[in-house]
Amino acid sequence: xxxxxxxxxxxxxxxEGVRSPQTxxxxxxAGLCEARVRCYAELNDHLPERWHQRDMPVRFAPPxxxxxxxxALGLSTDAVELALIDGSSxxxxxxxxxxxxxxxxxxxxxxxxxxxxxLHEAPLRQPRFLCDAHLDKLGRRLRLLGFDxxxxxxxxxxxxxxxxxxxxxxxxxxxxxxxxxELLARPELTHALEVPQAPVDIQLRCLxxxxxxxxxxxxxxxxxxxxxxxxPVDAAELRDxxxxxxxxxxxxxxxxxxxxxxxxxxxxxxxxAFVDGLLRD
Length: 281
Ligand SMILES: [Zn+2]
Hints:
The chain is α/β, with parallel strands linked by helices. Helices cover 25% and strands 17% of the residues. The chain has helices at residues 66-73, 136-144, 152-156, 162-171, 181-184, 200-211, 243-248, 266-280; strands at residues 3-4, 33-39, 56-60, 82-85, 88-89, 101-105, 129-131, 149-151, 175-178, 192-194, 231-233, 252-254, 261-263. It has a 6-stranded mixed sheet, with no helix packed on it. Strands 8-7-9-10 form a 4-stranded parallel sheet, with helices on both faces. Strands 11-12-13 form a 3-stranded antiparallel sheet, with no helix packed on it. A hairpin with a 2-residue loop joins strand 4 and strand 5. The chain is elongated. The model is unreliable at 1-27 and 109-118 (pLDDT under 50).
C-alpha cells in the first residue's frame, strides 16, 4: 500500500498557482513523484505499525518541502532533530526530489554519518548522559560543563553489565556514551553514541561538536564528584574552609550531595580558560 500525499493549494503550489492534475491511464493523477521515507527510534510511534523501521513509499505532487512532508506524515517539526535526503542533512525548507530517500531522526539518535546540519538552531532536549565504564574522566568533564551525567560505576556498582546500562539509559532517557560497539548496537537503545579512542579532551571536543552542546552548557554549576547541582553558601556557614582561602575568596558553593565546597581559586581560573576555549569553537 502507498501512503499518498498531495500538494494542496496555497501550500506548496506557490506562484505557479494550483495545478489541475492530469489523469494517467490507471486513473491516477499524472506527474506524481515518489520518495521513500524511513523514521528512526521513537519517530516510528507516529506511524502506522506496518511502517515501523521500514522504508515507507510516499507519493506526492511536486514541489514539496521537507516541512510539508513532515506535516503530511503527522510529524511535528519539533520531534525531528535531523533529516537526511539521499544521505545529506537538510533543513526544513529543502525540497524533496522525485526518488528521494528521506531519513528522519529524533533528537540525538545514534547515527553514523558525516558532517550534519541540524534542523533546529538549538537541540531540542537538555541532554543527559550515561558513561560506560572507563569513560569516567569524560563524564566528570561533562559535569564540569553542567551536564547531568551518571557514571556506570556510580549507578550500578563496579561491574554493571550491559543489561543494567541499557536499562538505565532507557529508564532515565540518557544518551549512553561508550566505546563498546556491541553494546551500542543493542536494539533497545535509542540514544547512544560511540566515543572515539582519544585523550579525554579530544573526546569532549568531539562530543560538543557532534551534539552541538555549546549553548546548553552551564559550566561550574554541578559537582564533578557526585553530579548534584551546587548551591551558593554563605562563607560564615563554612567551618572547614582554611582561613587563607576565606580571606581571598568571597563566593562559595556547596554540593548538597557530597558536602564538597567549591570556590574560584587558581585551579578554577585554569579550568575557566579551558572551558571557554572548548565552548568557543
Ligand atoms: Zn557532590
